[in-house]
Structure formats: C-alpha cells, structure tokens
Design goal:
Length: 198
C-alpha cells in the first residue's frame, strides 16, 4: 500500500482544527491491492489495484447522497478520524489495512505506478474537478496556476494534458525553470513584480 501526505494530515495530527481523536492514523491518498472483499461487493475482486480518497462511506439515503454529493452527507465517513457504522475507528492510509465501501474505491490502471497514483486522490481531484467544472478542459483555453507547490504541479500537468496554454504565477522566480522546462508551462509570471502583473 502507498499513501501520499497532505497538509490536512499534518493539521489533523496536531489537532490544529480541533476534533482530532487519538489514536489517529492519517492518510487519504491511498493506493494498494485488494486483499479481501465483502459478500455484497460487485465492482472489485481480490488482487485488484485500487485507490481510496478522503471518504470510505456515507448513509446513501439522504438527499445529498441521492444527488451524488456524498461529501455533504451528514453521516459521511471520513477515511480517518471518524467511525464506521459499527462504531469502530477509521484509520487512514498509514495503517496496515483499511476498509471502504466499494462506492468510494477507484480502480488504478495497470500502466500507472501505484506510488505515482496516490497523490491523484487528493491533489489530483482538487485540481481536476474545477478544471472540468469550469470547462477549462478544452484545447486552446488559457489557464493560470497560482503557486507551484504540490497542487500547482498537478494543476499545470492537468491543464497541459487538456491542451490549455498555461501560465504559472509564483512569488519565487527560482521556480521558472521547473515550470517551463520540467512541467511544460507556456509562460511564467513573478507575482511580486508589478510590471509582470500588469
């Protein structure tokens, strides 16, 4: 099993937002191999390559669930720092194993290395979703990516894969080479330079 680390995990570990329950095992960018399935599982079998993001369950009976908005379900079950329906504690991707409803599990293609797939389950969906929602997923669009940290890297890669012209906007001039030469951005602006921001 592989698991990325997100800054949210660090906040939960340190109880920065309150509500952390200990023992707490973080991790919500999880990929691995199915080792067992329940009797009602239809989409997966033992040996499948899969991923799990920030949720492992929900009530599946409220209006939000009916509208495919399970993340707004009042009874959603987060991957960690939560409890399953039977009252046991959910432990995240840094545990030895985990349990998830098949609705919250995605198949990982054979040609995608598991370690590279893990960040797609948080940073990936965080950038992919708005690009699709705001219809910035078409060739010829111009997309600006502010910041070239963990999310910014993924944003540049997705936007380029969609065929967009990408401008990276950063406070750090030292990131220009990485943005242009390694990630394929078309242009780079230093946000602290008033002339470039005109």
């Amino acid at each position: 099993m592989y698991c990325g680390i997100c800054h949210t995990d660090l906040h939960r570990i340190k109880n920065d937002w309150g509500g952390s329950n200990y023992p707490l095992v973080p991790g919500h960018e999880i990929v691995g191999i199915v080792t067992d399935i329940g009797s009602k599982v239809k989409k997966f079998k033992v040996g499948d390559r899969v991923g799990v993001g920030c949720m492992v369950g929900a009530c599946h009976s409220c209006d939000n669930c009916a509208a495919d908005l399970e993340n707004y379900c009042p009874k959603k079950i987060r991957t960690y720092n939560n409890t399953y329906l039977d009252g046991t504690i959910t432990y995240g991707g840094y545990s030895d194993h985990m349990v998830a409803n098949e609705h919250y599990v995605v198949r990982i293609p054979d040609n995608l290395p598991l370690d590279a797939a893990a960040p797609l389950l948080c940073a990936g969906i965080t950038l992919y979703s708005p690009l699709k929602y705001f219809e910035l997923d078409k060739p010829g669009m111009h997309v600006g990516v502010v910041g070239l940290g963990g999310l910014g890297h993924v944003g540049v890669k997705f936007a380029k894969a969609f065929g967009a012209k990408v401008t990276v906007i950063s406070t750090s001039p030292s990131k220009k080479k990485e943005a242009i030469e390694h990630l394929g951005a078309d242009s780079f602006l230093v946000s602290r330079d008033p002339e470039q921001m005109q």
